[in-house]
Specification:
The chain is 40% helix and 21% strand. It is of the alpha/beta class. It has two domains: 3-193, Spore Coat Polysaccharide Biosynthesis Protein SpsA, Chain A; 203-276.
Length: 284
């Protein structure tokens, strides 16, 4: 079960040590870890360089500071995966710099993948700090966490690539499902996400980004409206759902291109309609 880990990091001096400690103490270590310093200016570069000097299986990549980058770091992830020959590995572990997890986390996910050949993308479940406690961020069972997930090599080959831009992690999942793979998160495997989702640029922009991501992923406007109502009381209070819907509608009004192909959009909307009317779908 040879796996490749890859992490994009930009100005992660505060959180990267937690990931380093987690990965170095896994019961199943990666054959190679591509650690990408994406133009950091806070000391992350020195940390990455020192770590690589201690472990020959860690491959540091230093990119120049090009200003802002696309959300999630996916604009550099696929480029580096191609450069380092990811098809030579059985599994690809794509993990953000602001998470940590327990010792047996990766080994358990690899065991699940070995046990069920049609599992294509797997993860644990995110927990975020709220008022001094770690609170679970519930997701549907099929939604593998984008910040800490493992791909089966054959699944990643089938879906083609990891997209760049908001909504990339949903597109991966829907492509895999459309091609007959299963995707899953495991509630008993905790991902300690130290920076709450969509807060890097403030909560308001984070909620707008959620709407943009949904548009990019081909979401139906009816499903998006239902989702916005469900998020109406998320922070910022009374505005969370409205901001999501505004982000979606702004893209629609501008005629912005989506990341989802027409075929994928039809698949997504068909599954969303089935969920809205209470019929079984692959999104379960």
């Amino acid at each position: 079960m040879k796996y490749l880990a890859i992490t994009p990091a930009r100005n992660e001096l505060q959180f990267l040590p937690g990931l380093i400690d987690s990965l170095l103490h896994q019961s199943s270590l990666p054959a190679r870890w591509i650690l990408i310093d994406d133009g950091s200016t806070d000391g992350t570069t020195d940390m990455v360089r020192q770590l690589a000097q201690l472990h020959d299986w860690i491959e540091p990549v230093f990119l120049p500071d090009g200003g802002s980058r696309r959300p999630g770091g996916e604009s550099v992830v696929m480029e580096q995966l191609d450069a380092f020959g990811w098809r030579e590995f059985d599994y690809i572990f794509r993990v953000d710099a602001d998470v940590s997890f327990e010792r047996g986390h990766v080994a358990r996910l690899l065991e699940e993948l070995e046990r069920e050949p049609r599992l294509g993308i797997v993860s644990g479940t995110n927990y975020e700090p709220v008022g001094g406690a770690w609170i679970m961020c519930p997701e549907p069972g099929f939604q593998a966490a984008g910040n800490c997930r493992i791909y089966r090599r054959e699944c990643l080959q089938a879906i083609g690539r990891i997209e760049s831009g908001l909504g990339w992690d949903t597109i991966d999942i829907t492509r895999a499902l459309m091609l007959g793979y299963r995707t899953r998160n495991f509630r008993d495997l905790k991902i300690f996400h130290r920076r709450p989702m969509q807060t890097a640029n403030g909560r308001v922009q984070g909620r707008l980004n959620m709407g943009i991501a949904a548009y990019n992923a081909g979401y139906s406007p009816f499903f998006m409206a239902a989702r916005s109502i469900r998020h109406a009381f998320a922070k910022p209070r009374m505005m969370g759902g409205a901001l999501m819907m505004f982000g979606y509608l702004r893209q629609w009004a501008a005629g912005a291109p989506t990341l989802a192909t027409p075929e994928l959009t039809r698949f997504v909307r068909r599954q969303q309609l089935r969920r809205l009317i209470g019929v079984n779908s692959v999104w379960r």
